[in-house]
Amino acid sequence: MPESQSIEYKSVWKDEYLRWICGFANANGGTLYIGKDDNGNVVGVKNAKKLLEDLPNKITTILGIVADVNLHETKQGDFIEIVVEPQPNPVNYKGEYHYRSGSTKQELKGAALDKFLLHKQGRKWDSVPIPNVSISDLKQEAFDFFRKKGVKSNRLDEDTLTDRNELLLENLQLTENSYLKRAAILLFHPKPEKLVTGAFIKIGYFESDSDLRFQDEIHGNLFEQVEKTMDLLFTKYIKAMISYEGIYRIEIYEYPKEAVREALHNAVAHKDYTGATPIQISVYKDKIMIWNFGQLPDNWTIETLQKKHSSVPHNPDISNAFFRIGYIEAWGRGIKKMNEQCAETGLPQPLYYYESSGFWVEFRKDIYFPEYLKELRLNERQTDALLFFKEQGEITTSEYMKRYNIAERTARNDLNELIKNQLLIREGETNLAKYLFYNTALPKFRRSFAEVAEVAEVLPKSKSHN
Predict the structure, then answer these.
(1) How far is CA 98 from the centre of its chain?
(2) I need a surface site. Which of 21, 56, 239, 429 has the fewest CB within 10 A?
(3) What span, in angstroms and rounded, lies between the C-alpha atoms of 305 and 288?
(4) What pLDDT is stored for residue 344 in this prediction?
(5) Rounded CA separation 393/388 (Å)
(6) How far does CA 223 lie from the centroid of its chain?
(7) Which pLDDT belongs to residue 245?
(8) What is the pLDDT at residue 441?
């Protein structure tokens, strides 16, 4: 049996291996074998009986825990088995905190150590009290905004409008023993970056991954960041098609506004602020990518997000405040809402993935418009077909042949080239195949954009890391 999250082999005993026991104790427990090689084969260990007597005392004296130490006698030699249970409290080896991750041991330092200690205490980062900051240091306009939004969303009583700031913070559980919590600083302080490094948002417009054309930074408390970012995105970065119904001006944006807002709210609420890295929004001609430093809850995958799931906020106090003003839901429905909003507007479902130490949400817009198709250097038939059959949502080989009076082989070559350009998805066998537009294929298959792209064998080999 190879080494794993819960198994470690050592051929001889050294006192420094107490660090490995410490790592098991701070993680999910595990077993350390002394007298086995890296492949788990017994090689025997000298003085096994003496180790059987000495090790329990060393473990207890240095680490402060009790572990089961067992002697096994075999034909190949004797070996020691040390069984370590996970501990509810942090365990240190001479002031060092070690943690078992995968089949390796890591010494925890800095932000990782802070996070680990908070977790062992049953606390979250945003609930930690901060000294030397008073309620008078907070921004009154932020309180006023919160009250009005909360009452409007029907998640705060109207009495809240006249409550003192101290009472509001207390009701939101943002104070502890006369200290303000970190969440209170991020939510209501005029300049939270003085106390939390990297607590801001960056937006950039990219012609390509290496060609940044312009950018903005949004600072202030979290409410200001959300509102200013949405305003900037939909006035400067995202285009709108304008039409009129009588005297009324109608604006239809390239992306559903509420879906983008939901993604932004989630990024701000669930960001891991120990990373000291701003939220980054990369806007391209055909997509928007929103990234926040952080990770999924333990034992969760991207597939977990796509299914019905409970709400497990990374920052419970920040999330509670966001819920009270209608920014987020408390039932884990955000991903489902974004998928539905994109489907309703004929866009591909957003792409969700974990990469570059953070979580990405990627929106892709309707790519079937002349300016974008022109850049792909398609032939005239291909461009015309995409625009002509767009409303129909699919093309057949016979329709393509008839419209352009061409041979079947030419038609198939044209259509296959459109598949390679990620413009169509083939459904069915060759003779009966239909070539589907993405806005038709995605709702039909009920899959994420990544899955459909994989079916079509056109998933991009790399993604932006901006």
Answers:
(1) 26
(2) 429
(3) 20
(4) 83
(5) 10
(6) 20
(7) 73
(8) 57
pLDDT score for 292: 97
**Which stretches of the chain score pLDDT less than 50?**
442-466
d(CA 12, CA 78) in angstroms, rounded, equals 11
What is the structure's pLDDT at 302?
Answer: 85
User: What pLDDT score was predicted for residue 346?
Assistant: 72
Which secondary-structure segment (H or E) carries 403? helix 397-404
The angle formed by the CA atoms of residues 150, 155 and 159, to the nearest 5 degrees, is 70
Q: How much is the CA Rg of the chain, to the nearest whole Å?
A: 29
Residue pair 42/77 in contact (Cβ under 8 Å)? The answer is yes
**Which residue ranges make up each domain of the chain?**
7-122, 124-366, 370-455
Q: Where are the beta strands (DSSP E) in 294-408?
A: 351-355, 358-364, 394-396
- Asked if residue 338 lies in contact with residue 263, where contact means CB atoms within 8 angstroms, the answer is yes
Question: Residue 430's pLDDT is what?
Answer: 66
The separation between CA 12 and the C-alpha centre of its own chain, rounded to angstroms, equals 42
CATH of domain 370-455: 1.10.10.10
CATH fold of 7-122 reads 3.30.950
pLDDT of residue 428: 83
Q: Specify the pLDDT at position 439.
A: 60
455-to-425, 447, 458 alpha-carbon distances in Å: 8, 10, 8
For 204, other C-beta atoms within 10 Å of its C-beta total 18
What is the C-alpha separation between 364 and 362, in angstroms, rounded?
7
Q: Name the CATH topology of 124-366.
A: Heat Shock Protein 90 (3.30.565)
Six-digit token string for 347: 């866009």
- Rounded to the nearest angstrom, the gap between the alpha carbon of residue 215 and the centroid of all alpha carbons in its chain is 23
Q: Are 275 and 293 in contact (CB under 8 A)?
A: yes
- First-to-last alpha carbon distance for the chain, in angstroms, is 41
Longest dimension (CA), the chain: 94
Structure tokens at 277: 């890295």
- Asked if 292 and 286 count as a contact pair (C-beta separation under 8 A), the reply is no
How far is the C-alpha of 100 from the C-alpha of 357, rounded, in Å?
Answer: 19
**Residue 374 neighbours by CB distance under 10 Å:** 10
CA distance linking residue 398 with residue 181, whole number of Å: 66
pLDDT, residue 259, reads: 95
- Rounded distance between C-alpha atoms, residue 40 and residue 373, angstroms: 59
Helical pair 334-344 and 257-270, crossing angle rounded to 10 deg? 160
Q: Which two tokens stand for residue 83?
A: 């069984």
Angle of the 222-232 helix axis to the 257-270 helix axis, nearest 10: 150
CB 136 within 8 A of CB 39: no
Name residue 20's amino acid.
Answer: W
pLDDT of residue 148: 96
